[in-house]
């Protein structure tokens, strides 16, 4: 649909891109408090801040601010203060490329970049890798499972594992047998569909319908009617922006005011998504009928407490920040930024070619490394000549040779306030069986 | 087959909303020679104005006029403060289109810190669902269709039977000649922006009601079928826009039933391209109410 829009006015599209760049250049950046005689370092948050996936960018910006605060409160990275800046990709590869180029060209002090969702990672990652900038990406695309990009890091599993976790939860926990797949037609959401279909069919379940819905449409009543005609037990979904809210409201409306059970990906554990869908179908309906899979995070421990303290403290800069206290992506990107900062401290270098390889070591730990949960503790340990292992807000990191790290899944639902409640976990055996069935 | 019939029923609602908005959009072009790409964003701004009232506990139907008034005033000010000065300087049509695109971006980015990036929903009761065969429409949807019918009849009456309507048609046909004949074209243009802005506000509010959820980003999505319906019917022709709305509204819904939801707008645009190839002026360009006489 957006492609159609572009066809309407190609010349206008060029202007649009220029204006977007200009607006991106005017984008807010958090200025660290206090003064330093040394130059400041920048963390780029490259993600959709406008467009259908506009809910994603704030979740990542909410990761950067507490990380910057934690670092700056401990004296910065070797005395260099850290700040965050948003670079809007609009969730479109065509907009992401100039945004990434502009970010790299106009900011020589980039220490790391976070964000890069499935919408834009394929176009942004090569640019960042070529510029030697460590990146922590939230893409779930399987093409990054064995990536050759040296500067790429991913602290979340690929989307296909999310899909497998959904299948496992639906079949093993709820005993559903008939599943409707309703995903947005954007790159990120569609990454779930193939693996989910393979796993469902491999395990004997039925895919009653597979709908790739255009995001942001005013109505999906025809699509909903077609879906209801197939009589599914449950709907699997990820369609961000107002799309899921519109679709689910129409499901309830056209199903005699009765909502079907529906299950979301980890991206639906998000305050923006919660607000949209509860506004459309009511809080009690969401609490009763919705479940999701999420990254295996305990939301406890000293690393999480440190993150939470800093997250609450940055509400003066970003009032919505505290709402992301249980957003897995926010926790993991916070961890990635701190890992990069500790790698810089450990190597005593601002040169990414020097500190990038050490991010892996800070995440996984090396022999004799001391575990740290706060940045200040990490700096202190490094000053004592020790190696450190970061165990932060998201728990342990387990990078493989491609700098991919993952920790398993939990099955969750929302409470009436929008907080996440764990209602189950997937065992290793369950996960392995589903992955095998899905060809993962 | 029952799905296609149901889709046809849903298409009635879609076409009603597109008709209200497309008539406003095409009248702006016909009378003021302005292709206003900020129209979708003004729709959303108006929808949020109605939301503010609705969120304070007022029925959305009572908030609807607030959306209309907001759209009217906002559009009037946009023209007076931004578009008209550029037009007086002789900026050509393409230049004005680009300016309106910039205005759209500015509105969206100014709205974000005010209303946030969260999607919102009106507090509304969809009412009883009425069935006619496979067609199932709620009371609220039937009311939206009724609003569209009333608005279309009002626009027809305005253009056909009132002095203002005749002045609008004369201004659209030849503004210089109209001015020389004593028609206060500047005032006609101001009134045109107020009326089309009100249509924009009504359309934004009913679109928000119909979609159950909307956000700042919805503006660009709403604009696409509006432009398609306007061009299909013949740019500048309100009656053409009505026919365009019927075709686009129904084609998007029925194609979602027959082919795939993913391609619902692609099908509509394919038909649009076909019409443009066979009849570049659109379906009703020469017979439109705002077209030159004779």
Question: What key attributes describe this structure?
Answer:
heterodimer; A: 440 residues; Rossmann fold; 6-stranded mixed beta sheet; 17 helices; 17% strand; globular; disordered N terminus; B: 294 residues; mainly alpha; ABC transporter involved in vitamin B12 uptake, BtuC; two-stranded antiparallel ribbon
Could you explain the architecture of this structure?
- The complex is a heterodimer of chains A (440) and B (294).
- Chain A contains 17 helices and 15 strands.
- Chain A has helices at 2-8, 10-25, 56-73, 93-106, 121-130, 159-173, 187-190, 193-202, 221-228, 243-254, 271-281, 283-289, 302-313, 328-347, 352-364, 375-383, 428-438, and strands at residues 29-30, 41-47, 82-88, 110-115, 135-137, 152-153, 178-184, 206-213, 234-238, 262-264, 290-295, 370-372, 388-390, 409-414, 420-425.
- In chain A, strand 4, helix 5 (121-130) and strand 5 form a beta-alpha-beta unit.
- The longest helix of chain A is centred in the C-terminal third of the chain and has 20 residues, at 328-347.
- Helices cover 74% and strands 3% of the residues of chain B.
- A two-stranded antiparallel ribbon of chain B has the order 1-2.
- In chain B, strand 1 and strand 2 (135-138) form a beta hairpin.
- The longest helix of chain B has 31 residues, at 2-32.
- Chain B is globular, with a radius of gyration of 19 Å.
- The model of chain B has no long low-confidence stretch (mean pLDDT 90).
- At the A-B interface, helix 1, helix 2, strand 8, helix 9 and helix 10 of A face helix 1, helix 4, helix 8, helix 9 and helix 10 of B.
**Beta-strand percentage range of chain B:** under 5%
Question: SSE string of chain B, helix = H, strand = E?
Answer: HHHHEEHHHHHHH
Widest sheet, order of strands of chain A = 8-7-9-10-11-14-15
Number of extended strands of chain B: 2
CATH superfamily of the largest domain in chain A: Response regulator
Determine the mean pLDDT of chain A. Answer: 87
* Number of distinct helices of chain A: 17
CA-CA gap between termini of chain A? 31 Å
Strand percentage of chain A lies at 15-25%
Largest sheet of chain B: 2 strands, antiparallel
Adjacency order of strands in the biggest sheet of chain B: 1-2
Shape of chain A: globular
What's the rounded overall pLDDT mean of chain B? 90
Which class best fits the helix and strand makeup of chain B?
mainly alpha
Largest interface, with counts of residues having CB < 8 Å to the other chain, equals: A-B, 52 and 53 residues
Topology-level CATH name of the largest domain in chain A = Rossmann fold
């Amino acid at each position: 649909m957006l492609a159609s829009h572009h066809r309407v006015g190609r010349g206008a599209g060029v202007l649009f891109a220029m204006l977007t760049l200009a607006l991106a250049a005017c984008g807010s950046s958090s200025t660290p408090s206090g003064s330093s005689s040394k130059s400041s370092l920048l963390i780029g948050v490259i993600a959709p801040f406008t467009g259908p996936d506009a809910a994603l960018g704030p979740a990542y910006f909410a990761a950067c601010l507490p990380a910057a605060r934690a670092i700056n409160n401990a004296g910065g990275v070797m005395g260099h203060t850290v700040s965050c800046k948003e670079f809007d990709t609009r969730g479109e590869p065509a907009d992401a490329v100039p945004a990434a180029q502009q970010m790299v060209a106009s900011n020589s002090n980039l220490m790391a970049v976070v964000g890069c969702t499935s919408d834009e990672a394929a176009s942004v990652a090569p640019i960042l890798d070529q510029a030697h900038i460590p990146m922590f990406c939230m893409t779930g695309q399987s093409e990054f499972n064995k990536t050759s990009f040296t500067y790429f890091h991913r602290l979340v599993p690929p989307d296909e594992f999310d899909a497998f976790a959904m299948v496992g939860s639906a079949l093993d926990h709820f005993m559903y047998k008939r599943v409707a797949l309703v995903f947005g037609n954007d790159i990120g959401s569609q990454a779930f569909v193939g693996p989910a279909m393979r796993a469902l069919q491999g395990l004997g379940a039925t895919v009653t319908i597979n709908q790739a819905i255009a995001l942001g449409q005013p109505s999906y009543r025809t699509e909903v009617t077609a879906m209801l005609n197939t009589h599914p037990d449950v709907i699997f979904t990820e369609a961000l922006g107002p799309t899921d809210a519109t679709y689910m409201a129409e499901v309830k409306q056209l199903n005699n005011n009765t909502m079907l059970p529906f299950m979301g990906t980890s991206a639906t554990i998000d305050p923006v998504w919660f607000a949209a869908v509860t506004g459309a179908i009511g809080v009690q309906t969401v609490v009763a009928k919705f479940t999701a899979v999420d990254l295996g995070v305990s939301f406890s421990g000293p690393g999480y407490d440190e993150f939470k303290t800093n997250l609450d403290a940055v509400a003066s800069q970003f009032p919505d920040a505290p709402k992301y206290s249980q957003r897995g992506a926010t926790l993991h990107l916070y961890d990635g930024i701190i890992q990069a900062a500790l790698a810089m401290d450990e190597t005593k270098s601002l040169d990414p070619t020097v500190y990038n390889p050490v991010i892996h070591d800070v995440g996984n730990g090396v022999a004799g490394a001391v575990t740290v949960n706060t940045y200040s503790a990490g700096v202190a340990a490094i000053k004592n000549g020790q190696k450190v292992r970061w165990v932060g807000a998201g728990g342990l990191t387990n990078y493989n040779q491609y700098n991919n790290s993952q920790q398993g899944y939990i099955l969750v639902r929302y409470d009436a306030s929008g907080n996440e409640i764990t209602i189950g976990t997937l065992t290793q055996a369950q996960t392995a069986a589903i992955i095998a069935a899905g060809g993962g | 087959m029952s799905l296609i019939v149901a889709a046809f029923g849903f298409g009635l609602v879609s076409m009603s909303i597109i008709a209200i908005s497309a008539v406003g959009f095409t009248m702006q072009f016909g009378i003021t020679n302005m292709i206003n790409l900020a129209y979708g964003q003004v729709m959303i701004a108006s929808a949020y104005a109605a939301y503010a009232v609705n969120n304070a506990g007022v029925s959305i139907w009572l908030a609807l006029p607030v959306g209309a008034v907001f759209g009217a005033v906002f559009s009037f000010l946009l023209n007076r403060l931004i578009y008209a000065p550029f037009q007086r300087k002789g900026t050509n049509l393409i230049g004005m289109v680009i300016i309106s695109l910039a205005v759209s971006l500015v509105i969206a980015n100014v709205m974000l810190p005010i209303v946030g990036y969260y999607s919102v929903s009106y507090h509304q009761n969809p009412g009883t669902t009425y069935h006619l065969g496979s067609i199932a429409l709620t009371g609220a949807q039937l009311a939206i269709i009724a609003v569209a019918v009333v608005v279309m009849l009002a626009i027809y009456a305005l253009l056909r039977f009132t002095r203002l309507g005749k002045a609008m048609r004369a201004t659209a046909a030849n503004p210089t000649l109209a001015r020389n004949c004593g028609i206060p074209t500047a005032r006609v243009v101001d009134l045109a922006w107020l009326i089309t802005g009100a249509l924009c506000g009504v359309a934004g509010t009913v679109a928000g009601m119909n979609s159950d959820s909307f956000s700042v980003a919805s503006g660009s999505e709403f604009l696409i079928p509006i432009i398609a319906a306007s061009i299909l019917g013949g740019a500048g022709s309100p009656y053409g826009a009505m026919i365009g709305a019927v075709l686009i509204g129904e084609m998007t819904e029925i194609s979602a039933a027959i082919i795939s939801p993913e391609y619902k707008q692609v099908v509509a645009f394919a038909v649009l391209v076909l019409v443009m190839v066979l009849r570049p002026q659109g379906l009703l360009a020469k017979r439109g109410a705002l077209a030159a006489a004779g």
